[in-house]
Design a protein that fits this description.
Elements lengths: L6 H20 L3 H32 L6 H25 L1
Helix pairs in contact: 2-3
């Protein structure tokens, strides 16, 4: 029988049981986690590679810009890739 003194304990136990059941239902398997991590890696690396190639192209077209374009492309790509990963992780939570 639930009395007013142990009603608080009863509510907290029910809340924890519901949270545990919800977590078990939403849990992903190994394949789902692997796909998620692979997607994060791809979303991070594509801007890095693309901006590096653009920087390299700029270096080849403009004389006197030995590696500035390439290095700028790498830095910009890392920043954009990190932002992409952050937005995807934040959206999932």
């Amino acid at each position: 029988m639930i009395t007013p003194s142990n009603q608080h304990w009863h509510r907290s136990i029910l809340r924890e049981v519901r949270r545990t059941i919800r977590a078990q239902c939403e849990r992903q398997g190994l394949i789902g986690q692997s796909l998620y991590l692979g997607t994060l890696g791809l979303v991070f690396m594509l801007p890095v590679v693309a901006s590096t190639y653009i920087g390299l192209w700029i270096d080849e077209k403009l004389p006197g810009y030995s590696v500035r374009g390439t290095l700028s492309g790498i830095v910009i790509g890392i920043a954009v890739g990190a932002l992409n990963v952050y937005l995807i992780v934040r959206e999932r939570r």
